[in-house]
Amino acid sequence: MINIVIIDDEWNARSFLSNLLEKELGEEYHLVGSCASVKDGVKAIKEHAVDLVFLDIQMPEEDGFELMGYFEEIDFEIIFVTAFDQYAIRAFQCSALHYLLKPLDVIELRKAISRYKNTSENKKAILQKFDVFEEYLERKQEKKRIIFETANGFDVVVLKDILYVDAQGNYCDIYLKDAIKKTVMCSMKHMEECLPDPYFCRIHHSSIVNLNEVSRFLTVDKEVKLSDGTLLKVSERKLKSFKQRIGELV
Known about the structure:
Distance between the termini: 33 Å
CATH class of the largest domain: Alpha Beta
Radius of gyration: 20 Å
CATH superfamily of the largest domain: Response regulator
Strand order of the largest sheet: 2-1-3-4-5
Strand content: 25-35%
Largest sheet: 5 strands, parallel
Number of strands: 15
CATH architecture of the largest domain: 3-Layer(aba) Sandwich
Order of helices and strands: EHEHEEHEHHEEEEEHEEEEEH
Number of helices: 7
């Protein structure tokens, strides 16, 4: 019997993964917790003898990495579930952390379960892998900057801090992490030329998004959800290009 906890803020994702695991593991599968947050996940792990945790990384309150801080001793395995970009995936591969990509694939899930059954790691080993993971990301995602003219001078913007850009006639509003907004004197066309591939994608005549900050795409409404919860429309004209570009990252 494998005691499993699934931590993901999306109910549909938890249900889908649970069904896949039940089919793959059969009688070995025992779900002891289906949790929508790190806080609930920690509670479930502490209340049960848990063997394996499937842990989503991008969640609203606390990200999956923060789970580690709640335990002095880690006696369970972790398989991360992620929609991270290509550089983060390479970081996972370099650090040898277990991971699955969204949308989940049955064959990859099968491989992850096989890896779990053939390995056993303690907290020290996992933390060492985190160090490798973080080093790789810092090396690949350098703090590249770009300068934009404003009414009072110019602003220096760190590219990876940009969530999205919204056109305002001959001006653009740049929305950054930590709820910061900068208004710059720049047309949308010029903005699109300034922001580098493969990170940025124009999804509407008035919107450019940082693809690394896209956490979800809502098919019915044709909207993207960003890491801060912002919802932005994807125009019909840009839909095919957006799907192709986001696919290249994952």
